[in-house]
Amino acid sequence: MEEDERLVQAFRAGEEGAFAALVIRYREPVYRFLRRMTGNHEDAADLTQEVFLRAYRGLGRFEGRCRVRTWLLRIATNACLDHRERQRQPLPLEAAAALSAPPEAEPDALAERRERWRRVREAVQALPPRQRAAVVLRLYGGYPYKEIAEVLDCSEGTVKAAVFSALRKLRRALEVVKGG
Amino acid sequence: MGGSSCPAYRDLVLEAATDPAGPVLLRELEAHLSVCGACRAEWESLRQVVAWVREVPEPSVPPGFWYELQGRLKRQAGQQGRRARWARAAKAAALAVLAALAVHRATPPPGPLREPEVVSPAVRALLPQVSQLAQVWGAGLIGEVDR
């Protein structure tokens, strides 16, 4: 936290290297969140760049009411919502089949597990964006509900209701993999 | 997750099932689950879904991506920085012009021309001739007068 404050102050004083240090510090959590949100590297990479450029423009006005990480994740969530309209073209069928089909020599257990992962990814992608963000932040990021509420700019109770509702939907979508 | 669990324990069940350290059972919750079948079923169901979701491995970052990202950000942030500096300079220049205009407007305008309070008799005697000469010149007849 103190390191973040020091870097923000240094950036405001005109030290460009301070921004680069903030990027190094937070590029991984931002990218990983966006990767889970979008489901592919290309979109996650573009959005990660967009998030840090938005942060560069806004850092001078950052008031320090929340952590830098929380602020960046909020920017990332908003960037994701903006991005919804310009989704990428789906992969050509052959390429998609090559990616999802397990290699022939793969043992059954591993193939089953891969299939389960694919279904979970699809089910998570099918969630409404804010529910998806809450689930990704909690289950993959391990963030406290309080911080997720700050990221999504809502109450902690709303976040818990969103996660609860999302887990119900996932349960219905994944029922078939039970015991798989 | 049938929606029949006790409202007072719902948050606790959710927090415990989604805890980053894995499903944890607080003593208070454990005691309740041992006597409440609905909450016990909810707990088991949540725990299972969370396990499935968490089982999906962390996506790998393509090699060289961080280096590429840092380079792209440096270039684009540099461009934005230059644009911002130009915008600041233009804003300062515009403010300076506005300030000059404000000073100019604040200065009272000069009053109407008045005759000097003290005019010597010699000058006063010349004035009608000067006025007549100006009228002739204004009518384009100055050459004829000279001849």
What would you call the structural class of chain B? mainly alpha
Tally the helices of chain A: what do you get?
A: 9
| Overall average pLDDT of chain B | 79
Number of strands of chain A: 0
Q: Helix share of residues of chain A?
A: over 70%
The helix/strand order of chain B is HHHHHH
pLDDT average of chain A, as an integer? 87
Question: What portion of residues of chain B is helical?
Answer: 55-70%
Order of helices and strands of chain A: HHHHHHHHH
Descriptive overview:
The complex is a heterodimer of chains A (180) and B (147). Chain A has 180 residues and is mainly α. Chain A folds into two domains: 2-86, RNA polymerase sigma factor, region 2, helix turn helix motif (Rna Polymerase Sigma Factor, Chain: A, Orthogonal Bundle); 93-174, Orthogonal Bundle (Arc Repressor Mutant, subunit A). Helix content of chain A is 74%, strand content 0%. Chain A has helices at 2-12, 16-38, 41-58, 68-83, 93-100, 108-125, 129-140, 145-152, 156-174. Chain B is elongated and about 125 Å long. The termini of chain B are far apart. Helices cover 69% and strands 0% of the residues of chain B. In chain B, helix 1 (7-17) packs parallel to helix 3 (37-55). With 147 residues, chain B is an all-alpha fold. Chain A binds chain B through residues 16, 19-20, 23-24, 27-28, 31-32, 35-36, 41, 45, 48-49, 52-53, 56-57, 113, 116-117, 120-121, 124, 135, 138-140, 142, 145, 160, 163-164, 167-168, 170-171, 174, 177-178, and chain B through 1, 10-11, 14-15, 18, 20, 45-46, 48-50, 52-59, 61-62, 65-66, 69-70, 72-74, 76-77, 80-81.
Observed structural traits:
A: 180 residues; mainly alpha; 2 domains; B: 147 residues; 6 helices; 0% strand; elongated
SSE layout and pairings?
The complex is a heterodimer of chains A (180) and B (147).
Chain A: H1 2-12, H2 16-38, H3 41-58, H4 68-83, H5 93-100, H6 108-125, H7 129-140, H8 145-152, H9 156-174
Helix pairs in contact in A: 1-2, 2-3, 2-4, 3-4, 4-8, 6-9, 7-9, 8-9
Chain B: H1 7-17, H2 27-33, H3 37-55, H4 65-106, H5 121-138, H6 142-146
Helix pairs in contact in B: 1-3
